[in-house]
Amino acid sequence: xxxxxxxxxVQGKVALITGASGAFGMVAARVLAGAGCHLVLTAGSAxxxxxxxxxxxxxxxxxxxxxxRPDDAATCTAMVDRAVADHGALDILVVASGMNKVxxxxxMPVEDFGAVMDAxxxxxxxxxxxxxxxxxxxxxxxxxxxxxxxGLLGHPAGYTAYCASKAxxxxxxxxxxxxxxxxxxxxxxIAPTVFRSPLTAWMFEDTDQARAMRDGFLSRVxxxxxxxxxxxxxxxxxxASGASDFYTxxxxxADGGYTAG
Length: 261
Prior knowledge:
By secondary structure, this protein is an alpha/beta fold. It has a single domain (about 5-195, about 230-255), classed as NAD(P)-binding Rossmann-like Domain (Rossmann fold, 3-Layer(aba) Sandwich), CATH 3.40.50.720. It is built from seven helices and seven strands, in the order βαβαβαβαβαβααβ. The chain has a seven-stranded parallel beta sheet with strand order 3-2-1-4-5-6-7, sandwiched between helices. The longest helix is centred in the middle third of the chain and has 29 residues, at about 110-140. The chain is globular.
């Protein structure tokens, strides 16, 4: 333990990040680029993908992009193959792609429920399946899913699809942690609550509506504040690095204590 910080070293590792243009995906891309990883970034928005790729290149990372969503098994395999072809390996998979559709159960179309489950659950499973093939060949790998505090807790505002999907991601995390334990592959999930992003920026504003929503929510958050992107950086680096080699099947709540009480 003369150099404990070396446990967190991911210099030269190859990371595939899906949903790289989304709030968590951008955090993951910047953190792993800054830590010295080579990146394959994927997203459905070409313009946003190019922007985050440029930021990561400025941080010194070698970056490949794929303007695609992990909609099917062939695309997921192609993403893994791109990492291996361009960078020689796949050490880290961060599944940050996903979606939410909010509606009370009697107002939600069946198609919307299915779309959320597809994006959050099926695509996570397909990506893990494709990555596992390569990681088993290497004898090592880190799979990091993005869950949510809503995988553990309900929500009264029409979150039946989202809560169900994140609970399923938690189940996949635990099951794969058990299944892949002997292979050298770890499988874990980060489960944030509200953190600053383009979608939640209004909650941080100094308006009556924002203050009312924020105060009600923060009454249940022991840390007494909303999350910032940097609150996700440490947990991600831990789960992507050798520091977490003995940790698998875990859901790491980045929530200021929200799920503790």
